[in-house]
Design a protein that fits this description.
single chain, about 400 residues, alpha/beta, six-stranded mixed beta sheet, five-stranded mixed beta sheet, 14 helices, about 45% helix, about 25% strand, elongated
Length: about 400
């Protein structure tokens, strides 16, 4: 079956609001086993909405319409669609997170699903009510797994799994590039749950073999920072952070995780060279010879915070987020990240693109990925040494 997504709202056309609903619904269509070939954005206009829905009728079995369900004068979606389907059966969708209820209109030919425009209302409504309805629309059992990867770019990953895209016609692989991460959704459909799970199990096993420790979780709800905190907890490690260009963003990501107080000792922001010297003991000669944005300073920052807080693991970040301050030798986007695990320090050089915010966000994700990598490598070396 095919599905189509129509997003209603003049604010989407002007760019005032980013259309995240379409991305969410498209992903859910894949998960539910429906092909989605078209997405449309239409303003708050009755005639244009009618024309858009009529076009969708000709090419899709299920039509998702989001937005325009409120009580404002320009919220014309509900009445417009109901007028178009006077003979349709109606299934009410309760809104537990707002006032705009949705509904499912169904006649012998088509199904139209009306959802609120707010993502905070649309997403739970879909997950709690619509997904159950869609499952009943197919005689196939659909199961999905998500593999989350850090430290590798989307092209590298796609090149490594080309063969898996054609593994089985009942298995769909979709890659989603996030900030510094790539998520792979594996969706399988089969006559029974056992068969669907068997199909996903094979592909997940292959992905684990190919990407190994670059996979930080196979659970949809687990974030990168959560996986880092879990790793620290599992190994009884304490962490401190020292940041320059990221200005505390790394510490904030870690502190977002419930239970992080068991492992997080301290987070410092040393933006100026003077602060790097006074707080961390970074040598003035190092700063003068190599500049604040250098491998040497990142190393001394990681080691300095380790001595200061007595943490088992420390992470340092120093770089040029821009838009100014770059040179040919040290361009904007250059970031050095250091990680010290029980006295062993590793520093990596990164080159990020984009505006100031994007560079800083990429740097934080890279720091979390390096943290995981260094802790895993440290304990693999310790284990190997014990066995040897």
């Amino acid at each position: 079956m095919t599905a189509e997504i129509i997003s209603v709202g003049s604010e989407l056309l002007t760019g005032t609001v980013v259309n995240t609903n379409a991305a969410f619904l498209a992903e859910q269509c894949v998960t539910s086993g429906f092909d989605c070939f078209y997405q449309t954005v239409v303003g708050d206009d009755k005639k244009r909405l009618e024309e858009t829905v009529k076009t969708a009728e000709k090419r899709s079995d299920i039509i998702f319409v989001s937005g325009g369900l409120g009580q404002a004068e320009d919220d014309i979606t509900m009445q417009t669609i109901k007028d178009m389907y006077p003979d349709a059966s109606v299934v009410e969708l309760e809104n537990h997170n707002g006032s705009a209820n949705g509904c499912i209109l169904e006649n012998q030919k088509k199904t139209v699903i009306l959802l609120p425009g707010s993502p905070k209302e649309l997403e739970p409504m879909f997950k709690e009510q619509v997904s159950v309805y869609l499952q009943e629309k197919t005689d196939m059992v659909i199961r999905s797994r998500t593999i989350k990867i850090c430290g590798l770019d989307e092209k590298t990953i796609n090149d490594s799994i080309k063969d898996l895209f054609d593994y089985n016609e009942n298995v769909v692989l979709a890659t989603y590039a996030k900030c510094g991460e790539v998520h792979i959704r594996v969706t399988a459909k089969a006559a029974t749950e056992k068969e669907a799970l068997k199909l996903t199990k094979y592909v997940v096993k292959e992905l684990k073999h190919r990407f190994n420790q670059s996979i930080y979780t196979t659970h949809e709800e687990t974030s990168l920072e959560q996986s880092c905190v879990d790793l620290l907890l599992a190994n009884d490690l304490r962490i401190s952070t020292m940041e320059s260009c990221t200005g505390g963003m790394l510490a904030a990501r870690l502190i977002n995780v419930p239970g992080v107080s068991e492992v997080f000792k301290a987070g410092y922001v040393t933006y100026s060279n003077k602060a790097k010297r006074k707080v961390l003991g970074v040598k003035q000669s190092t700063l003068k010879k190599y500049s604040a944005v250098s491998e040497e300073v990142a190393r001394e920052m990681a080691q300095g915070i380790s001595l200061l807080t007595k943490a088992d693991v420390t992470v340092s970040v120093t770089g040029l987020a821009g838009p100014d301050g770059g040179t040919k030798e040290k361009p904007v986007g250059l970031v050095y990240i250091g990680c010290n695990v029980k006295g062993k320090t590793v520093v990596e050089e990164y080159h990020f693109s984009g505006d100031r915010t994007h560079v800083r966000e990429e740097a934080v994700v890279a720091a979390l990925a390096l943290l995981r990598k260094c802790v895993l490598e440290y304990f693999s070396e310790v284990t190997f040494g014990k066995k040897g």
